[in-house]
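User: Predict the full complex structure for these chains.
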Amino acid sequence: MNLRKGSLIFGTLFVLFFAALSLIDQALAHAHDYPNAIKFSIFPYKSPQTIFRLFSPIAKRIQEKTGKKVNVVSAPDFDTFVERGIKGEYDLALPCVTCFFMMQPAGYHVIARGEPFFHGGVITRKDSGITSLEQLKGKKIAAIGRHSFAGFMFLKLPMHERGLSTEEDMHFHFLKKNDSIIFGVLNKKYDAGVIRLDSLNSPMFEAIRDTVTIINKSPQIPQFPFVVKDGIDPEIISAVLDILTGLNPGNEEDKKVLRSLGLQKIVPAQDSDYDTFGKILKSSSEL
Amino acid sequence: MIAFKIRTHLILSVSLITLLLTSVIVSLYTVRAKEHAFSKLSEYGETIAFDTAYAVADHIINEDYALLQNTILKFATLSNIDTIEISDSDWTMLAATDLNMLGTIMPHTPSGESLKNEDHISVHIDRQVHKLTVTVPIYIGDSLMGHARIFLSMHEILAHIHDIQNKGILSGIFFWMIAVLVGIGASRMLTKPVSRFMQATESISQGDFNVTLPSSKRIWELQRFSSALEVMVHAIEARENDLIASEKKFRHLFERAMEGIFACDSSGIFEAVNPAMLAILGYDSSDNLLPRNFFTDILADHDAIAAFKQQITQQNFVKGYELNLLKKDGSSITASLSCHAERNSEGQIIRYEGLIRDITQQKKASEEIAQMRNYLHSIIESMPSMLITIDKDLIVTQWNSAASHITGIPSTKAIGEKIWNIAPFFRKYIDHVDRISLYPETIKLQREHMGSDKERLFNMTIFPLVTNGTSGIAIRLDDITELETKEKQLQQAQKMESLGTLAGGLAHDFNNVLGGILGNLSLIQFRLDQHELISEEELREYVKSMSTGGYRAADLVRQLLTLSRKQKIELVPVDLNLSIKHVRKISENTFDRSVKINIQMLPAPAYCLADPSQIEQVILNICINAAHSMTIMRGETTWGGDLTVSLKKMTSDRIFCQSHPDAKEGLYWVVSISDTGVGMDSTVLAKIFDPFFTTKEKGKGTGLGLSMAYSIIKQLNGFIDVSSKKNMGSTFNIYLPFLERQIREQDLLKDPLIYPGQGCILVVDDDDIMLETACAILKSAGYDVLAARNGQEGVDIYREKQSSLSAILLDLVMPIMSGKETYLEIKKINPDAKVLLSSGFRHDERVDDVMQLGVNGFLQKPYTMENLTKTMKEILAE
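Assistant: Here is the predicted structure of the two-chain assembly.
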């Protein structure tokens, strides 16, 4: 009797606690919305602070040009990012390509994109003896996320073509971060890793670059699109576009910003620029 | 000031120190602990704040506020964390442990005192609510993301500090109690031996030095103190004993002192007197004297009192103050007073302490001594002898009137001067003075001249002088000039007596000699008258016989001259063998033939320092007496006997000196003269050296012979020892000091008979034989010779031939012009003329008279070829 009553009270208090947390979260979310601020949300493809550091220069330029405060934010995960996007919380965003297609219905459209294109790929240690996708059967494989094209989805098709199922024939572990995947493979924690291949160009991996082998490469993937929400002041959009496309690789400071983003330049773009890739993505998703 | 016991001092001190130390330590520790705790809490808060800021940065970027809230709630569970608040860059509260704070604006500056306020951190302390607030900004790169604020509770720290304080106080109380117990223990440890030391010192102060001193083995200082106290006790005991002994000694001294000791107050009333004082003043008991007044009852002379008081007031003491004191019976004594005045701090005399000595007898004795001194001084001053005393530095201390008279130097000038400075001739006696300084003895010197005055003779006696502990030397000089003259006259008279005694025998012998010579001459004359041819051999026999007679006659004459001469006494080395030989000749020629003369001489020379004439006279005198004892003194009985003269050397040792008071240790020559005559009894023997004592018939002896012999031998530092027995004969032993003398080598060699020479010699002699003989000898030696028969002729020849003449042989006794007159004339002609004087007289006053004029040499007649040529050569060589 007492135990049941205690459990009931404890359960009630637990629920109340999390309910309170949820209310706090909501309250804070609204409290953080400033009418004169531009919310610039970045897909969490890196750690929040890395993302903040990478995009703060651009945010500052936008803030200086528009006279509006720019808050660089991210999200804890893919779903939250997409969910917030769908809810229309972003004024300006850099979603992943998949996210863009998921958020597009909420009124976001592309204004610019980075160049060049990049590839996803499967890496193994050279000393592992794994040189083909077939050998991945039954192996532990680290990947970015289930919705990441370069970090997982592109592999479905070649695996399928080889009669293998990514869901059944191998064991995927989604680590979200390219860095974590590369280190996991090098440390023999995983037999293979699925990453954006340009992440190997980071100076961090210069020393170990020759110790891995790329056994499969995705088709050309366009960079994440810079999207704006419908209803944003065109002057702001124009100003943002000017700033993004105005980053000149010949300028040392701009070059530094572009390099930090892993881009050579940013060019104006439209939603239609991602149609082809959208179809590929759709095919992969259906496998 | 109130005195406390050691225990109280120790407990109070220890308590005070313990409490003070505890308070200081607890306070300091509390402050330090509080500061440290705050510092650590602040560091802790800073760490939590930075960790929180770092942890929530991602959530802020991701706008994951639920996770943000969850994160700070996790941090809030850490110890001492009271509240955590997170705001965005606009200070809007994003998360807080107090949910009511969400959405509110975070205060830019928290309440309380600022401990640190820097760019990236600020720390505040709110002492009222006991909270520490740490605020840090949340930066990513240089972009401000928000603020994190941590509220830390200080309750735990304060409680801990409070706990430390309580424990400190408890510890302080605990230590204080231990300290009190230790203080009590220590005080007991100290007070017990101290009490024992106090008891011991009280016993010591009461004179009990045998008390056992406590020994504290556990306290080093007390142990040392005990040792030091023990040493001190022994020292005090020794000092006390010394003091008692000293007090006893001085008490005895006071009681037994021969001098009167007294003490009286400033008015003169006696306070203490010793028995001697009572005895001096004639009192039986101190009770009778103590009430009396020193100034009014004892001092007889009131003028003396005034003078005494004046002197002691000025000098504070008097010493040897002579005054008259009244005895109890009213009689007066003379006393010497030494007194010291004792004054108080204001300088007033409060006490007299004095010493009185009865000097009545001493004064009387001093007067007598003074009289005696004057008397002795008068004797010294009146004595005809010079009496000089000198101290060890040769400074004259006594110079009597005779010395002043004889030397012409007054005593005022002489005394205090070094003796050499006023009488330089004393310098030659320095060896004697030095000897006396080392070996105190009396030195007697005979017939000394004083300085350049050769006319006067002195006997000098130098003897050590010890008076009053100071050493010095006394010199007595007796003028014996007149005595010497008389003695010489006496000696001469005695000689004449001896000569008279011997004359008969000499005349007989001389007649015999002359008879022999004349007999030979008459024989030769007779044979010549007979025109008898006399062979050379016969002629030589006659000449030899006459020559022997002539030499014998010359010998007799020389002996007579020796005896009769009056000459200056000269001490020279004399070979006693020769003296005995000479006496033997005289004796053999003059004594009765019934006397058999035995001579025992020594083969080697026997030298002594003497006058040869005097020695021969002494031996001869004794021999004459010996001969008389065997002849004329026997009267009608048979004459004759043995006269033995012997010579030997002997050593005088200590034993010999004891039996012969005049002897000194050393070597002596002993001339023994023994006869077998009538001898002497002891009565006669005791008087034989007395002047004018004789046992001979009237007219046959003057009684001067032995007296003279004794005197002469005495002067030569010798002595005569006589042994005799009635009718058995006598033996006279003459002891003369041995003279060490090397025999000259040339004396041992055979001298040549003639000493050749060159030059022209003028011979002046009135005796033709001597003139011819001299000329012949000189020619034989290689000289050219000119002859003059008297002095005038000699002068004339010299005046004429002086340039060619080398020397002159001049006879002393000549008619017309004597040798002296001749010499003076020749000297007028040539002051450098060399003259050899010749005379039949021995070297006496007449010869000396001429010698002093500058004659180069003297030769006694008859001379031999050897003597003449040798002497002449020596003169020419000068």
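The first strand of chain A starts at residue 37 and ends at 42.
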